[in-house]
């Protein structure tokens, strides 16, 4: 019987102990996703390279095994200032620390040690995939006339895939309806002191993610991060924004954007030290556009980006 990709479910819960399944529940840990792409079993192989009195393949032996899950999540708040968004565990598994100010805000900032683990459950129309000890990376996309979203890629320890019925009691009530990015819903953005007409802003945390397989231990490992992105705006005059000088001098300039206007559904992305590179022109509806790649540098450390929900 054919499997329906629409009949899918993702659950996620932070692990407190490596190797111990915290058992995510459909009523408390469901993640509202779109564009799911699963690699249920990833493996690396070595050739046997046998010598025999005839030609032909010798076969291969699997040396690693892990699973990978990619999906998008709409970027919105929790509905209540000071309450973490329902997708907060995903950000924590991507190397972010969560800091809560009661009734005010929840902020995610990168860390370089003590990165948390995640338990992921993925149901695909009767097939159950269970990934433990997962970590990942995330990117953000805020584009005019579109729904802002995050793209997650997570890898975790492979468990045997089994047949299982879809859990009941799935609850998505913690996920708020997103707002389209436009002038009304995205009230402010700034590149240094400049605030012109912005088409899009992207941010890729770009964690260097690998599956480590050693004798006695294995797991998802984040060895580094290289946050980068792009801004696309209407081409300003040099008097408004001297971007050639910024590029040539490798000047660090703050970049920020605020999306949402109602407390509980306001998201702020702040990158205090953005370096601008690779300028390019393009045309949009007969209007000249300027694209700039960005690389985000640390200042005191673990401060390249702050993602705040208010």
Q: How many E-type strands?
A: 21
Portion of residues within helices: under 10%
Whole-number tally of structural domains: 1
Return the string of H and E elements: EEEEEEHEEEEEEEEEEEHEEEE
Distance between the termini: 46 Å
Main sheet, how many strands, which sense, barrel? 17 strands, antiparallel
Number of helices: 2
Tell me briefly what this model is.
The chain is mainly beta and 310 residues long. It has one domain.
Describe this structure in words.
The chain has 310 residues and is mainly beta. The protein has one domain. A hairpin with a 5-residue loop joins strand 10 and strand 11. The longest helix has 6 residues. The protein is globular, with a radius of gyration of 22 Å. The termini are far apart. The model has no long low-confidence stretch (mean pLDDT 96).
Helices and strands, with pairings:
Elements: E1 8-15, E2 30-31, E3 34-42, E4 45-47, E5 60-62, E6 66-74, H1 88-93, E7 96-101, E8 105-110, E9 117-124, E10 127-143, E11 149-158, E12 162-163, E13 188-191, E14 198-204, E15 207-214, E16 217-225, E17 228-234, H2 243-248, E18 252-259, E19 267-284, E20 287-296, E21 306-309
């Amino acid at each position: 019987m054919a499997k329906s990709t629409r009949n899918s479910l993702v659950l996620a819960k932070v692990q407190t102990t490596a190797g111990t399944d915290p058992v995510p529940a459909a009523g408390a840990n469901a993640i509202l996703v779109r564009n799911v792409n699963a690699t249920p079993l990833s493996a690396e192989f070595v050739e046997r390279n046998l010598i025999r009195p005839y030609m032909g393949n010798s076969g291969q032996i699997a040396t690693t095994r892990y699973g990978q899950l990619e999906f998008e999540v709409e970027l919105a708040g929790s509905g209540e200032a000071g309450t973490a968004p329902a997708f907060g565990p995903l950000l924590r598994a991507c190397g972010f620390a969560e800091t809560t100010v009661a009734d005010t805000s929840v902020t995610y900032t990168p860390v370089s040690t003590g990165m948390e683990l995640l338990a992921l459950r993925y149901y695909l129309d009767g097939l159950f995939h269970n990934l433990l000890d997962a970590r990942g990376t995330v990117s953000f996309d805020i584009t005019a006339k579109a729904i802002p979203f995050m793209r997650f890629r997570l890898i975790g320890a492979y468990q045997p895939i089994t047949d299982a019925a879809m859990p009941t009691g799935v609850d998505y009530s913690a996920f708020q309806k997103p707002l389209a990015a436009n002038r009304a819903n995205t009230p402010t953005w700034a590149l240094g002191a400049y605030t012109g007409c912005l088409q899009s802003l992207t941010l890729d945390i770009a964690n260097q993610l690998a599956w480590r397989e050693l004798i006695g231990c294995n797991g998802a490992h984040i060895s580094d991060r290289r946050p980068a992105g792009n801004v696309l705006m209407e081409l300003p005059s040099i008097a408004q924004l001297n971007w050639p000088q910024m590029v040539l001098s490798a000047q660090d300039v703050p970049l920020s954007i605020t999306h949402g206007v109602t407390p509980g559904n306001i998201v702020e992305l702040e990158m205090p030290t953005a370096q601008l590179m690779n300028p390019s022109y393009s045309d949009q509806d007969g209007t000249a556009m300027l694209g700039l790649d960005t690389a985000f540098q640390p200042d005191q450390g673990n401060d390249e980006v702050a993602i705040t929900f208010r």
